[in-house]
Design brief:
A hairpin with a 2-residue loop joins strand 4 and strand 5. The chain contains 6 helices and 10 strands. It is globular, with a radius of gyration of 17 Å. The protein has a domain of about 120 residues: 3-Layer(aba) Sandwich (Rossmann fold), CATH 3.40.50. It has about 220 residues and is α/β, with parallel strands linked by helices. The strands form 2 sheets. The chain has a 6-stranded mixed beta sheet, sandwiched between helices.
Amino acid sequence: MGAVIEIDHINRIFGSGAKQFQALTDINAVIPASKLTILKGRSGSGKTTLLNIIGALDEPTSGEIRMNGESLRRMSDRERENMRRNKFGFVFQAVSLIPTMSAYQNVEFALRMAGQKGNFRPRVTEMLHMVGLGNRMNHMPAELSGGEQQRVAIARAIAHHPEVVLADEPTAELDSAMAAEVTRLLKELTRTENVTVVMTTHDVGLMDAGDHLIELESGRVVEHE
């Protein structure tokens, strides 16, 4: 398969004048479809900034992101919002499950927010079984371990059939065994759900887990394979 996302000469500058900071400098890369891409780099390397631009959560100072050949910069605000809602799923380091909702209700709520219609039960149940939580779907977040909460977050991110899942340091708060398990799950989803996954990490133990690697250092690409 070809590239689902093309990153073309992306620069991102924050602030102005003497306080200006260039977070990204001339980033060029491709994200292959239906693969797990690892976006590697130390804290402050620009990983999250780039991920936010890919997901239309932020705009570059210059350059272009194309998804399936269509430029995000040329879209209206409403078109970008619809793309975020329908084409992307997001998994963050802070799980951000709604504490007063069960695992099932958290995933179901995400489908409602995405504007989905109909009977949600089959899809919600399928997703929670897929992430290994079929017997814990009625548990509240406080009753789940950190790894289980992150798996609910992954189920929530993919329930509406996104084309791309963006995962920002999803294993940062997990021990090494659970981090490897969550990464394995994300890679498995590229096959079972035909979804493209981009995951940021600074964990050297996970660098070989992906199908594709982009390494950033001080806002520049230093490795792309």
